[in-house]
From TrEMBL:
It comes from Mycetocola reblochoni. It comes from the Bacteria. This is DAGKc domain-containing protein. One of its GO terms (molecular function) is ATP binding. Gene3D superfamilies: 2.60.200.40, Probable inorganic polyphosphate/atp-NAD kinase, domain 1.
């Protein structure tokens, strides 16, 4: 029996033989079908608000977190692996929980979760401490990520401490881990970007190079509710795990590039290290079969090089991978890449870099797209879909990445949008507002 056949056998025994069954197992909030691929964004946002309200039921992540907090069932009551890193002058360190022994009845209003590999911790303290005092907050709770815990455990520690604001300082991996820990709670998240991509901050137009500006926005009080991507990963053999992502997920060559990118090169040349990894991966890339089904739609089988699932669409360099994506519409955008050879990849580049990121921004550019035969040919290499969820089944175990994090190999995945499940600090002019989508040239 071939490896592919064995994978399909394992998948079937794990309940993956019917994508229709996957669709029916998703929560009701994620199962309303999108009637038209051109639905106005206002309608999507209205429906998203309704969906978000439904997640306040007793089975919702937010309610489960509230019940866990009230019952005392948290990392702080069971013991913690979190390291205490900074308690402030004169504070007594209690190593049992990794938290400070504060004055009676004084709770921290802020927790700072920092990746010490990515961020200058001392400099960050010097910025946050006076800014927090000026904003009327108590001494912040400082928590460092570790090699074994990218931030999920620290987010749970912050929730148990009763904070109202969490500052996440680090790269995309740190941000994703903290988002995963805060998803479904009412605690606000402030971003202090310090990585290579900083994609969530880019999509929210937050400062990328000034820690002081980022801290000022985080403490400013303006916020908006955004969706969080949710995925159930199915491994070869049937085991399952649940994860969150803030920006996008990828299967195929996209995940292979993320897994093979040189860390040292990322430090020296930044996001261009991904280009180098892509140049190594492209010659070896071969299309593979994928079964996919949008919620409420029919099942399809296609041969692809990559499948990307996005909560928002902006990449480094101002590239718009998903030009019509909105981070608060309760839906996910999907790109299916099917290039044929080198010229096919050049068409992909033309579509993403030139058409999506330049021409679609203007009325005259969109008119050019409608009339251009070359534009129509480039669309053959990328298919765009949108829906509240999508289920994927693969021919054999393949790599998957979430916000750049390598999550290993899977034989299937079920994606859904968790609407308005995270409150995030933004610039005042962006509070409770979203950027309108760029009108389609299709």
């Amino acid at each position: 029996m071939t490896a592919a056949a064995r994978s399909f056998t394992c998948a079937s025994s794990a309940g993956l033989s019917s994508l229709d069954a996957w669709a029916t197992r998703l929560p009701k909030a994620f199962c309303s079908a999108r009637s038209s691929s051109k639905r106005p964004i206002a309608s999507r946002r209205t429906r998203s608000a309704s969906m978000a309200e439904s997640t306040r039921s007793g089975e919702a992540p937010r309610s489960r977190w509230e019940c866990r907090t009230r019952s005392g069932f948290s990392r702080s009551t069971e013991g913690s692996i979190t390291r205490q890193v900074y308690a402030g002058a004169g504070a007594r360190v209690v190593y049992r929980w990794g938290m400070t022994d504060r004055r009676q009845n004084e709770a921290p209003g802020i927790a700072v979760i920092v990746n010490p590999v990515k961020m200058p911790v001392t400099q960050l303290r010097e910025i946050v401490a006076p800014a927090a005092r000026a904003a009327g907050f108590a001494e912040p709770l400082w928590l460092e990520t570790t090699e074994d815990d990218a931030g999920q455990g620290m987010a749970a520690e912050a929730l148990a401490a009763g904070v109202e604001l969490v500052l996440a300082a680090g790269g995309d991996g740190t941000i994703r881990a903290v988002v995963e820990g805060l998803r479904g709670s009412e605690v606000r998240l402030g971003l202090i970007p310090g990585g290579t991509g900083n994609l969530l901050a880019r999509n929210l137009d937050l400062p990328l190079s000034s820690m002081a500006d980022a801290v000022a926005i985080a403490l400013g009080g303006a916020s908006r509710a955004i969706d969080v991507g949710f995925v159930e990963l199915i491994r070869d053999g049937g085991s399952r795990s649940e994860h969150s992502f803030a920006v996008m997920a990828g299967l195929g060559i996209d995940a292979e590039v993320m897994a093979s990118t040189n860390s040292s090169l990322k430090k020296s040349i930044g996001w261009l290290a991904y280009v180098e990894a892509g140049a190594r991966a492209l010659p070896k890339a071969k299309p593979f079969p994928v079964d996919y089904q949008l919620i409420g739609r029919h099942r399809h089988t296609v041969h692809v090089s990559t499948v990307l699932v996005g909560n928002c669409g902006r990449l480094q360099g101002g590239i718009e991978l998903f030009p019509d994506a909105a981070i608060d519409d309760g839906e996910l955008d999907v790109a299916i890449l099917q290039p044929r050879g080198l010229f096919g990849w050049l068409k992909v580049w033309r579509r993403v870099h030139w058409e999506n990121s330049a021409l679609k921004r203007t009325a005259i550019g969109r008119r050019i797209l409608r009339l251009s035969p070359e534009s129509k040919r480039s669309r053959e290499t990328i298919s765009y879909l949108r829906g509240s969820g999508i289920a994927l089944r693969l021919d054999r175990p393949r790599l998957i990445e979430l916000d750049g994090d390598d999550l290993g190999e899977v034989v299937g995945a079920r994606f859904s949008a968790d609407p308005s499940s995270l409150r995030i600090a933004v610039r005042p002019e962006a509070a409770e507002a979203a950027h309108p989508p760029i009108a389609s040239g299709d």
